[in-house]
Amino acid sequence: MVSITETQKIGVGLTGFGLFCLLFGVLLYFDSVLLAFGNVLFLAGLAFIIGPRRTAGFFFQRQKLRGSTFFLGGVALVLFRWPIIGMAVESYGFLLLFRSFFPVAFGFILSLVNIPYLNVGNSSSMV
Questions:
Q1: What is the distance between the alpha carbons of residues 85 and 72, in angstroms, rounded to a whole number?
Q2: 89 vs 22: CA distance, rounded Å
Q3: How far is Cα 18 from Cα 11, in angstroms, rounded to an integer?
Q4: Is the pTM of this model over 0.90?
Q5: 59 with 42: CB under 8 angstroms?
Q6: Are 71 and 94 in contact (CB under 8 A)?
Q7: Spatial CA neighbour of 47 closest among 87, 96, 19, 10
Q8: Pseudo-torsion of CA 23, 98, 108, 104, nearest 10°?
Q9: Which helix (H) or strand (E) holds 127?
């Protein structure tokens, strides 16, 4: 069993609340205050979960520098009250940062749910 420290629990709460604020900010027609608050909480929660040194190491790896620039630039644009352009730039940076993680996540989700047409590995289930 993996033990979670109190700091990591706080980080999970901050990250979850940040994602909630981001979603609610988008639903309220790109409310810049909620988006900025969500961005700050998300980044603070990430730093609490994996630590500030590993967070900086993740964002400033040489192969992820372009994605980090777009993501953090989008956060800056949202903070400067350009929410629509900022969220577009931030989303592109998020895709660049986590593109190696998406196949792993989709494979995990597909292994949990047995949907016959999405299950590529087993062709007998499509009968």
A1: 13
A2: 14
A3: 10
A4: no
A5: no
A6: yes
A7: 10
A8: 170
A9: none
User: Per-residue confidence of the chain (127 residues) as pLDDT tens digits?
Assistant: 788 899 999 999 999 999 999 999 999 999 999 999 999 999 999 999 999 999 999 999 999 999 999 999 999 999 999 999 999 999 999 999 989 888 888 887 777 776 666 555 555 555 5
Select from 3, 1, 54, 43 the least CA-distant residue to 19: 43
| H-helix or E-strand spanning residue 125 | none
Residue owning tokens 């989303």: 91
Cα dihedral 60, 37, 41, 20 in deg (nearest 10): -120
